[in-house]
Design a protein that fits this description.
Layout: H1 3-8, H2 12-23, H3 27-36, E1 44-50, H4 56-69, E2 74-79, H5 88-96, E3 106-111, H6 119-134, E4 138-144, H7 148-155, E5 159-164, H8 171-174, H9 177-182, E6 185-188, H10 196-209, E7 220-223, H11 232-249, H12 251-281, H13 285-294, H14 300-312
Parallel strand pairs: 1-4, 1-5, 2-3, 2-4, 5-6, 6-7
The structure holds guanosine-5'-diphosphate and magnesium ion.
């Protein structure tokens, strides 16, 4: 039996092996993912993003418990963009999630690596698909909301929760509009700290100032204390309300179409880039281009066009530029 077949049958060890192969960028993983694909699309994906230390992992642990008590199986993908060798945050995640470690209905995976090719967003999608095919009803993706990679990751989630903490003060103004745009639910965690109400008010005001189109989802700002588990039921209910909205409004169709298009284009971009590198590996093109650029005898625009034309072997299909 292939790994994919075993995963579909609910084999947790096979899932873990396939995720390792994905991490290691093994070509065999792609073959398995092809087989897995028809069995995906069932899980509901929740993205949790926010600055480091906001309490995301603690919140994920509480949400996991909350969905488990509703009889749902939960997969967790925790992404830490720091070096895989520091281990700190990941170890922390493991400890925080420890109470679920004997629960067969919970599957936790930390991704620390940032592959040279494909990127974090690709491997997160792939790992999420394995959890989906394994039969997890809910897949929670925790990511530090800093860069474009992370924004791309949460865009793949059905519901995205942006986690903040009190006392950001004026910094809250510095939060990129992009973060406001991607949030379906906003959480002010550490509500036991001073300034929680103020942060909640500021966030609410910022959200109200957006010109959201008529009939679109209206994100709420909720207060939680992840450490003590307060506000978690309300948060779960809000996530489920957003899910209901997606389906009842038909927004889900557009969302899925856009997500599938991004997924395909991601893979295509990877493939093209890989091919270009492999194509140039056969000769000294790369060295010649770089040296030519140094003496300004070659410009990178023309060089890239030539490589693409040679690689694709079809000049007519390339757009004029
Ligand atoms: N005071 C307070 N501390 C919290 C709360 N939730 C989490 N923490 C603590 O904040 C720290 C960072 O939490 P963690 O979940 O690792 O944050 P992450 O980096 O966003 O994943 C830990 O020491 C948590 O125990 C809370 O509601 N109140
Ligand atoms: Mg964390």
């Amino acid at each position: 039996m292939t790994l994919a077949e075993q995963v579909v049958q609910g084999n947790i060890r096979a899932a873990a092996r396939l995720m390792r192969d994905i991490d290691d960028n093994r070509p065999s993983a792609v073959q398995e993912l092809k087989q897995l694909y028809p069995h995906t699309g069932q899980a509901y994906i929740i993205g949790i993003t926010g600055p480091p230390g906001a309490g995301k992992s603690t919140l994920v642990d509480q949400l996991t418990a909350s969905f488990r008590s509703r009889g749902q199986k939960v997969g967790v993908v925790a992404i830490d963009p720091t070096s895989p060798f520091t281990g700190g945050a990941i170890l922390g995640d493991r400890i925080r999630m420890n109470r679920h470690s004997c629960d067969e209905g919970v599957f936790i995976r930390s991704l620390a690596t940032r592959g040279a090719l494909g990127g974090l967003s690709r491997s997160t999608t792939d790992v999420g698909m394995v959890m989906d095919a394994l039969g997890m009803d809910i897949v929670i993706i925790e990511t530090v909301g800093v860069g474009q990679d992370e924004v791309d990751i949460v865009k793949a989630a059905h519901t995205t929760c942006v986690v903040m903490v009190p006392g950001l003060g004026d910094d809250i103004q510095a939060i990129k509009a992009g973060i406001l745009e991607i949030g379906d639910v906003f959480v002010v965690n550490k509500a036991d700290r001073d300034g929680a109400d103020r942060t909640t008010r500021e966030l609410t005001t910022m959200l109200e100032m957006r010109n959201a189109p008529e009939g679109s989802w209206n994100p709420q700002v909720l207060k939680t204390e992840a450490q003590r588990g307060s506000g978690i039921e309300e948060l779960t209910a809000e996530i489920l309300a957003h899910r209901d909205f997606l389906f009842a409004s038909g927004t889900i169709d557009n969302f899925l179409r856009e997500r599938n298009q991004r997924h395909f284009l991601d893979i295509l971009r990877d493939g093209l880039f890989r091919n270009a590198l492999a194509f140039m590996a056969g000769d000294d093109t790369l060295t010649r281009v770089v040296e030519g650029m140094g003496s300004r005898s070659i410009d990178p625009y023309s060089a890239a066009e030539v490589v693409l034309q040679d690689m694709l072997g079809n000049r007519a299909r390339l757009a004029d530029s």
